[in-house]
Amino acid sequence: MSLHIYNTMSRKQEEFIPQQPGKVKMYACGPTVYDYIHIGNARPAIFFDVVRRYLEAVGYKVDYLVNFTDVDDKLIRKAEQLGSTVPEVAERFIEAFYEDTEGLGVRRATRNPRVMEHIPQIIAFIGELVEQGSAYPSGGDVYFRTKSFAAYGQLSHQNLEELQLGIRIGIDERKEDPQDFVLWKGAKPGEISWDSPWGPGRPGWHIECSAMAREYLGDTLDIHGGGNDLQFPHHECECAQSESLTGKPLARYWMHNGFINIDNQKMSKSLGNGITVNELLKRIKPEAIRYFMLSGHYRAPLNFSDDTVEQALGSVERIANCRINLEHRLGAVAPDGAGAAGWHAREGAPIGVLRYEPLTGDEALDERLRGLRDRFAAKLDDDFNTPDAITAWFELVAEANALLQLPVAPAPALRALLGLMDVMDGVLGLLPQPDLAAGLLDDEVDALIAERTQARADKNWKRADEIRDQLAEQGILLEDTPQGIRWRRK
């Protein structure tokens, strides 16, 4: 099965065919960096990270951009509150964004373009729109003539009359039409600004993505993504200004993720129920947060609560413990790495998920593992159905647990199970990554366990207890098994 994506533009699922074979140009709207990101921001960060990982896993080279809005009314107000400057506020929260998203297992994009570093490109883009008559200067601002773009409303599937209330925030005499939107905002006294042909000012929100996407990815993207709240007006306005200028579609596929509710209520400032990722990571394991985000289909709403996160933690620990058990058993039966490999590459097949064939010496097991590999890929090919892909992973866990119950588990079979688990984790990123800076390294743990084993053999119970307590303080749990002492992190 080939990859199919639900395209917001067409409102139907379509086969994914990039413009250039083997290459994908992908852009996801990033945050306005005036504060810590909240869990609503975390959902697209995690989901589009999975999209990027899967595309790479099946052989595509992905050029992935996530922008930073680093100049905006919110940043100006924040700088005033902090007695700081807009660039200083932006830098602070860009670093916080990296820390929070990397804590959630999100890989950095190919590029993270910033508005303040692309003012010349933005001014040039606006200038071209003015020159062709799609935009006009007025009172130090520049506005886009919405009615000049006949297809306005194509993405949100509404006409201008239906959208009028969404566009109009109040009567503005500088506009030719209340539905027009701003491309360049004239500076107020004391505000950060840049010189332009229309006077000092700064970019409007919508124009920045169009200009930066065009700068690095060309006139047409393969995939443009973001949250549902960006369909209108942000992405609608992006389409209008970009397609007016180039005469080409801005993106071939539009993807939008659903909202997150908090305890069955919409997350909003008025309710005061927003939760920052920075705060969340202090009390919830990152893999549980990531599991929660992927446990529902990306287009559906998710409900965040203590119960849902507790369930996510239990599920992800079940997967992690299974992998630990496989590694431990493999270390017992093949401590020096001996034994045939569990996989071999299929000639001419794409890399990653679909390339490898199990090679365990057990034909029936090989067939079952091939089926699990193919089901996992098929679910992701079906509009990135991560909940069902996770179900395939749990089927692998069941297969592994059955093998681990056998008195003798062959090394090739253990390696094949571990290999498929790593393939799945390479896409979904659900296995915990120990914070090595915060505690003992694996080799240090092994050395302490060996010392404790010797202390017990020598009947030095005091030292053995000291080591157990030291490991417990570091979150290391010890378990006795028929193959010896096994350890895992809490």
From TrEMBL:
Reaction(s) catalysed by this chain's protein: tRNA(Cys) + L-cysteine + ATP = L-cysteinyl-tRNA(Cys) + AMP + diphosphate
Superkingdom of the organism of origin: Bacteria
Recorded coiled-coil stretches: none
Cofactor, how bound (note): Binds 1 zinc ion per subunit.
Biological process terms in GO annotation: cysteinyl-tRNA aminoacylation
CDD domains, sorted: CysRS_core (cd00672)
Residue ranges constituting the Cysteinyl-tRNA synthetase class Ia DALR domain according to the UniProt record: 375-439
EC assignment: 6.1.1.16
Alphabetized GO MF terms: ATP binding; cysteine-tRNA ligase activity; zinc ion binding
Cell location: Cytoplasm
Enzyme's top EC category: ligase
The keyword ATP-binding appears for this protein: yes
Binding positions (Zn(2+)): 29, 209, 234, 238
Chief place of localization: cytoplasm
One GO CC annotation: cytosol
Motif ('HIGH' region): 31-41
Cross-referenced Gene3D superfamilies: Cysteine-tRNA ligase, C-terminal anti-codon recognition domain (1.20.120.1910), HUPs (3.40.50.620)
Residues that coordinate or bind ATP: 269
Residues spanned by motif 'KMSKS' region: 266-270
Keyword terms of this UniProt record: Aminoacyl-tRNA synthetase, ATP-binding, Cytoplasm, Ligase, Metal-binding, Nucleotide-binding, Protein biosynthesis, Zinc
UniProt cofactor(s): Zn(2+)
Alphabetized InterPro entries for the sequence: Cys-tRNA-ligase, Cys-tRNA-synt_Ia_DALR, Cys-tRNA/MSH_ligase, CysS_C, Rossmann-like_a/b/a_fold, tRNA-synt_1_cat_dom, tRNAsynth_Ia_anticodon-bd
Family, similarity comment: Belongs to the class-I aminoacyl-tRNA synthetase family.
Subunit structure: Monomer.
NCBIfam families tied to this protein: cysS
Name this protein carries in UniProt: Cysteine--tRNA ligase
Lineage: Bacteria, Bacillati, Bacillota, Bacilli, Bacillales
Encoding gene, per UniProt annotation: cysS
